[in-house]
Design a protein that fits this description.
- With 367 residues, the protein is of the alpha/beta class.
- Helix content is 38%, strand content 17%.
- A seven-stranded mixed sheet has the order 1-3-2-4-11-5-12, sandwiched between helices. It has a five-stranded mixed sheet with strand order 8-7-9-6-10, sandwiched between helices.
- Helix 2 crosses helix 11.
- The two termini are 14 Å apart.
Length: 367
């Protein structure tokens, strides 16, 4: 795909956003204090590899990674190949870490996946599995906004220019017939790009009137007196859309397919356990969040957030294609060629072996 068809100036801005200079690999904070990080006695390394570096975000839409880390599902499948974890707060920094080799595999949202794939002309990453659907809401100040029509003229936060929720909100605005300049966020609605960590305080202070955000930020806003005005899942067929998928460095996938397969086995087993043990899984995810961030979620926030997220192995590929179309519509992306962004070969192998249904790449798989 020619570079001219990859990413417009917006995505260049996104890529240039300052990376979070945290600990560990220089991109994300380390997370190695899970319940079962020790390698079982007698285990062997896969492909002779010492470690595999796994990245994820510290929020509940990355529950597979949180629980898989905390309960040791990944390490169990990896044997003596040690799982090392890094926690990120933003998609661009995780993509940069993947490209630099600071991580090998990551849990990440659809927009960073699309951006990373198109910017590299399809050479840097592959989406190899699904993880979660849903968990995104428009939460507003009920004193200022009583109906969807009242959103016009108000200040609404999204996590970042061009991120998954930002694209979704801009698309929803356009569907209302309103106009907003995607770059500045100014127009019939003022879109305020605000870090999820800051959004609850901004909402409480009254500097924003609402936010289109993922969990648990949405439930934190509700705890501050906000009201859920719209659940994004209601805008999608069957109320399903990709919020988190699994990506891998193409270089790592080619060199260590057995390790990638082991991580996918761990993911499938984690998802099976989560869906069979929702209360225990919720507690495990919160325990890992506390390790990663230093603070667990209050029960009210945790329970509300958890109930809106669906854990799935299916990458919901057709919805990723639609999300790319939304970014094009918003003027954030030139029409991309996403053919080849998926490689679900190993996932489907794992699913078949586990007696579970295989998943589809919506025609966007490797040729």
């Amino acid at each position: 795909m020619p570079a001219s068809t990859a990413v417009r100036r917006t995505l260049a801005v996104i890529a240039a956003l300052p990376l979070l200079t945290l600990a560990a690999c220089g991109y994300g904070s380390q997370s190695d204090k899970s319940e079962t990080t020790k390698v079982a006695a007698g285990s062997k390394k896969i492909d002779g590899l010492d470690t595999v570096k796994i990245g994820y975000f510290g929020n509940l839409t990355h529950a597979t990674a949180l629980v898989g880390n905390q309960k040791g599902f990944f390490q169990k499948e990896l044997g003596a190949t040690q799982a090392k974890y890094a926690v990120f707060n933003a998609g661009p920094s995780e993509i940069e870490a993947l490209n630099s080799g600071s991580i090998d595999i990551g849990w990440i949202g659809p927009s960073p996946s699309i951006n990373g794939y198109t910017k590299s002309n399809g050479t840097d990453l592959k989406i190899i599995g699904g993880s979660a659907s849903g968990g995104v809401k428009l939460v507003v100040n009920p004193k200022k906004i009583k109906s969807l029509a009242d959103v016009k003229g108000k200040k609404i936060a999204t996590p970042q220019l061009g991120n998954t929720q930002d694209v979704a909100f801009l698309n929803w605005i356009a569907d209302q017939g309103w106009k907003v300049d995607a770059q500045s966020g100014k127009g019939d609605v003022t879109v305020v790009r605000t870090d999820n960590k800051i959004t609850p305080d901004a909402f409480k202070a009254g500097s924003i009137d609402g936010a289109w955000v993922p969990e648990p930020t949405a439930s934190k806003l509700v705890a501050e007196g906000g009201k859920v005005l719209l659940d994004e899942s209601t805008l999608w067929p069957d109320k399903k859309f990709v919020i988190t998928n699994i990506i891998v460095s193409q270089k790592f996938l080619k060199a260590h397919p057995k390790v990638v397969e082991a991580v996918l086995k761990g993911s499938v087993e984690t998802n099976k356990w989560i869906n069979a043990n929702p209360d225990q899984a919720k507690a495990a995810a919160n325990k890992q969040l506390a390790i990663d961030s230093g603070k667990a979620l209050p029960d009210a926030v945790l329970n509300s957030a958890w109930s809106s997220i669906q854990i799935t192995n299916d990458p919901l590929a057709a919805t990723l294609d639609t999300e790319a179309e939304h970014a094009v519509k918003a003027g954030l992306l030139e029409k991309p060629n996403l053919k080849g962004i998926y490689d679900l070969t190993l996932l489907n192998k794992v699913l078949k072996a586990a007696g579970e249904s295989t998943v589809d790449d919506a025609g966007l798989g490797s040729s």
